[in-house]
Amino acid sequence: MECVNIKVEDDETVFVGPNNSGKTSATAIFRCFLGGKDFKVHDFSVTKVDDINAFGNDGNKDHLPTIELDLWFSINPDNIAFGRAFTLLPRLSDDFSEVGVRLKYEVRNPAKMHADYTAAYPASDDGTRKRTLAQFLNTDKNLKQYFNITYYSLESTDDEIAETFLESKEGKTLLQELVRIDFVDAQRNVDDDEGSRSSRLSTAFAAFYKKNLEQAEVAEAAHLVIDENNQKLTEHYEKHFSGLMKVIKSLGVPSINDRDLKIVSSLSPETALQGNTELLYVDSSREHELPEAYNGLGFKNLIYMAIQISHFHLQWMGTEKNRPLCQLIFVEEPEVHLHAQVQQTFITNIWNIISNAAKEAGDEALVPQFLVTTHSSHILDAVDFAKVRYFQRCEIQGEDRNAVTTFNSSKVHSLRAFQPEAIQVDGKEIDENGALNFLKRYLKLTHCDLFFADAAILVEGTVEKLLLQKMVEKDAPKLCANYLSILEVGGAYAHRFAGLLHFLNIPYLIITDLDSVEATGRHPVCRGDTPGALTSNASLKKFFDVTTVEELIALTPEQKVNTEDDHCVVFQTDVQVVEGDNQFQMRPRTLEEAFVFQNFGLLRGGALVLGITIPEGLADAYEDIFQRVKSSSFKKTEFALDVLAATEDWDTPSYIVEGLQWLESRLSSDSNASTLLEN
Asked: Is the CB of residue 382 less than 8 Å from the CB of residue 347?
């Protein structure tokens, strides 16, 4: 990531985007600056690694890069706690509603680093060295030896952001006063193995007990009567874990509907005093107990996250002296092992945990801010549209997208900043709010995976959606390696998505219908070759600013592509049907007509069935096919399923082939510019 700006919501902010678009990198920078993780050379973007190597060659300090993190906090000056931050930021202007801190990871002593590198790897006669400076810094903890974190207070003015250097101790104190950062990692490895890479739930409960709950006082007689004291400890655990157990039971996991949870003391009193426990699943009606290994990974994962988040929150609220003014909790990929229904309710249930804990602590405002990275459309479905931050792979600023071979940067789009334009639908104008509300409703209804896709394909309806995957396999097989979001939007709605897709910089293909209608009267449906026919397709009229079928048919493939908005729009075109010595040009108005005309031989041979007898003459056949497809008795979905079930090979309508091959070519250029960013 080169340079991004992310506005964090007051409650939850959700990071989404395709694989390797920078979501994990956005989390990693907080780990490195505030979470105790060491920086690595490859935390610098690839162009900056080149700059480091350039410094190794010429010693010019102008080449040396830095990694910077600016944190801006909105603060209420009336809050008593504000004074702690204010005393550390004496150079701020009179506007105290916002304070800023800059952290820089930079070279401590450039001259010494260059001298040590030169001594370790002197230049040969031709000026080359055995290892680059980046390779030198990547070994033996050299990077940590020469680079360190420096701190600055920030003041925003109309023209610029002014920084004031802070001593290291002062800067660290400032950050501790302002923010606490905690992480619920994606790689949780929750199982029943006590190995180094696993986390038993019982161990998590024990750690929570030791750090957050009142400890038991066990009589010395426990050494003689182990069972008796184990029973006492079990009763103690039941009492003090009761609140957390209620939270876990409310998480909506089906597997706990028929069994309760019970914490029991199972070890010797000496180790029990250290908080060692086991987690059991209890069938109360049968008094039957099962160890934690007998429940699914999804349930364990959910409980483990609840324990961790509760622990972090309680630790923050329980900080007696100089509690940080805010808390950020990063939750990575919470959907792991969770079924769809639990994914949808995850954020709501976590907020229930936090809100209840804050209420019990006597301060309902004492809640953290969550930053959730996810690939789950179910989690995204339950989140306010404006709280989404979309990560997009891109070229470095100033590079020619068509010339680069590797994407080494990201852009982050805040959906709070998206505002669509007013649009025309069936002759009525829909204002900006109406257009935005439509998109929100559509995305919720469809559990849309748009935010995780490499590209989108917008189709008319069910038939296209059913047949499209097979068409992709037949005519654009390279697309099978891409993540495509197929949206069933109809011709009247495809253009409603144009603004959002352009905002997100997602390439998209629209496959729609010619929808020919007569120019007179109430514009009844007519054959595509009817003289003077109009199109009733709102998207075609919007994208091409034409109204007649003839104008649409006259468009070239190049005119159907918009490179600026990164999309292509295709629709039915003329099909030359040949049968023996006869041929006839047919102009389909729908996918079904186009498919039949393109595969007329299969229709004539009975492999395709329309439910009518096809006349011998091509002209008569054209008319009968048109009448059949537009009739109310024609079942389009059944037609599509019959096509999929056909054993004979069929041809994809040429206009769809044209669109798919454009998208294949378009994404091929992106795959050539693959990224090395973390996801």
From this structure: yes
Domain region containing 230: 201-299
Structure tokens at 503: 């905002």
Please report the sign of the dihedral spanned by the C-alpha atoms of residue 74, residue 78, residue 81, residue 83: positive
Same domain? 206 vs 166:
no
Residue 383 lies in a domain: no
Residues forming a β-bridge with 164: 153
Residues making up the chain, counted from first to last: 679
Please compute Rg for the chain using Cα positions.
Answer: 32
Residue 201's pLDDT is 62
DSSP 327-353: EEEEEE-TTTT--HHHHHHHHHHHHHH
Looking at the structure, tell me whether residues 565 and 441 fall in a common domain: yes
What is the longest distance spanned by two Cα atoms in the chain?
106
Which residue from 485, 420, 439, 543 is spatially nearest to 663, judged by alpha carbons? 485
Residue segments in the chain with a per-residue pLDDT below the cut of 70: 1, 77-97, 187-206, 209-210, 213-229, 233, 240, 243-244, 246-261, 265-281, 290-298, 398-406, 424-427, 445-448, 491-492, 670-679
Q: Which residue type occupies 69?
A: L
pLDDT value, residue 219? 46
**Do 224 and 260 lie in a common domain?**
yes
Strand 674-675 and strand 406-407: the pairing is parallel
Number of compact structural domains in the chain = 4
SS3 511: strand
| Cα distances (Å, whole numbers) of residue 280 to 226, 235, 288 | 19, 14, 10
Secondary structure of 73-127 in HEC code, one letter for each residue:
EECCCCCCCHHHHHCCCCCCCCCCCEEEEEEEEEECCHHHHHHHHHHHCCCCCCC
Residues 492 and 629 in one domain: no
pTM (two decimals): 0.79
Of 145, 179, 213, the residue that ends a domain is: 179
- Cα(247)–Cα(470) distance, integer angstroms: 46
Rounded Cα gap, residues 642 and 648, in angstroms: 11
Domain contains 165: yes
Q: Does 330 fall in a domain? A: no
For residue 190, is it within any domain? no
